[in-house]
Amino acid sequence: MEKEQNTQMSFYYKDGYLYCEKLRVKDIQEQVSYSPFYLYSFAQLEQNYAAYQNALSGINAIIGYAVKANNNLTLLKRLNELGSGAVLVSGNELKLSLAAGFDLKRTILNGNGKTLEELSLAVEHEVLINIDSEFDLRHIQQTAKQLDIPANVLIRINPDVDPEVHPYVSTGMKNSKFGIRNERLNWFLDEIRKDDLLTLVGVHCHLGSTIKKVRIFRDATEIMLDFIRSIQAEGFSAQYLNIGGGLGIDYERTGEDIPTPKDLIDSIRGLLTDDITLIIEPGRSIIGNTAVFVNRVTGVKTNGNKHFIVTDGSMAELIRPSLYDTYQHIEFIEPVDGKVDTFDVVGPVCESADFLGKERELPTPPEGTGLVVCDAGAYCHTMSSNYNLKMSPPEYLVDGDKLTCIRRVETLDDYMRVFDV
Fold first, then answer.
1. Considering the entire predicted model, what is its pTM?
2. Which positions are annotated as active-site residues?
């Protein structure tokens, strides 16, 4: 968070209180009946999307928002209105994107285990489909034949460029579960050439997530362009170069120089030619810093060696820190003048892995104090669970001085209805 108001950021502090655009977060917390909850800034979403639009000026390109990062329907509708395409990894994401109004001809279906039902939806709606393996190609062929509808396909290739990130979010190495074996490329080309219902329109790669060096994208782009040229030499009119997403954001707040969308695109601009349409799949870098996860302090305790701030939020609502052992910045939303100490910030879930942050230097808060986990827009609510029968939390959107509930809290009655069989 910025300690002074910054017109470039939608979250800022004023007189010791955290604001989201024109609204004080403490006022929102007192107004909202359920805690914890997620709070989004529409201005930040607009700014993040515009950063990609501006960076891609003069380039034939499709911005495909990665729906898996955050699938809130209201946010998807806003992104569609801004001009975004969508990147999908399931049939349900396809249906949701349809409900959000996306032009499905400008969407891409990824995945290493796409089902026949999902492929049928994709072919019917003319979605671009990535081929991930021999069996995936066979299933796409089977689906197109059954429906008697042509399908536009890309081949997912692993450039084997190390993204230098957590192994759980590294997806473009040779031993990844995603993508074809590159030495089998000619076999795939032969199979596609023999099938009148398949049109090979490009290649795809995805290196990983939280990438902080644009050199990695440039290295991969050079390799992927070589693949496109070799495919074109075989007589295919491949035009799409899909370099995936994965640009990192500033979770740590240490002053590190984090590359921007412009830095990324400028690193590859000189490699692109007029016959190539670039597809880029940002998720985290569009939605990540648009939200905070707002909690209340339940109490403070010590076991003699460690001090704990216990909140009503937990790994059930926000699992990133415990799943990836990763850092998200934590701050109070209001002035706290207690003794500064080193705390683990933990939730009420019955797991030692239930933490939002470890070893944080914070003033000791009184019970009921508001606390936020920052940069909680991506892979946070969308990865929440009902563990310990915690309910999926509500989401709110701020647009200037207007607060709107964009997802109500899940109730126990909602949960119990799944057993009405």
1. 0.93
2. 350
